[in-house]
Amino acid sequence: MGKKPLLLRVLILAILIKEGKLHGYLLYKKILQHTRMRWKPSIGTVYHTLNEMVKEGLVSKYAENRKYNYVITSEGIEYFVKNSRTPAIRMAGVLATILEAYLKIPKANSVLTKDLRERLMTLKKILQEYGI
């Protein structure tokens, strides 16, 4: 079956957990939004991955208003938890260190864009909630 795009699968599942049901193109746009267009999987790759995930029972697909919507299943939640934990812990530690460094730089606020400052503060709150 070959190696599956784990990061794309985990990101799709995370977005579906956060947003609920989404049609394919909106899900694609959310991926671009969350990655700030730094990583742009093709729309064909996203639909191919979604169809694989439907076959594996990770997401459900149904037609509504002439569009196919996708929702995460309980198997998808289990997959997400199993496959996102280790990368999330690794990334959280790295991001926490980067955040601490930015906060210790004198006049860091003048270096940070408004968007980055907001994202770092959101990250700080999330990390604090989970004791990281």
Largest sheet: 3 strands, antiparallel
Could you give the order of strands across the largest sheet?
1-3-2
**Poorly predicted ranges (pLDDT <50, ≥5 residues)?**
none
Average predicted confidence as pLDDT? 83
Q: Give me the CATH superfamily of the largest domain.
A: Winged helix-like DNA-binding domain superfamily/Winged helix DNA-binding domain
Helicity level: 55-70%
Query: What would CATH call the architecture of the largest domain?
Result: Orthogonal Bundle
Q: How many helices? A: 6
Helix vs. strand class = mainly alpha
Describe the structure.
The chain starts with 5 loop residues before the first helix and ends with a helix. Strand 2 (59-64) and strand 3 (67-72) form a beta hairpin. It contains six helices and three strands, in the order αβααββααα. Helix 1 crosses helix 4 (74-104) and helix 4 packs across helix 6 (114-129). By secondary structure, it is mainly alpha-helical. The protein is elongated and about 55 Å long. Strands 1-3-2 form a three-stranded antiparallel sheet. The longest helix has 31 residues, at 74-104. It folds into two domains: 6-76, Arc Repressor Mutant, subunit A (Orthogonal Bundle); 85-129.
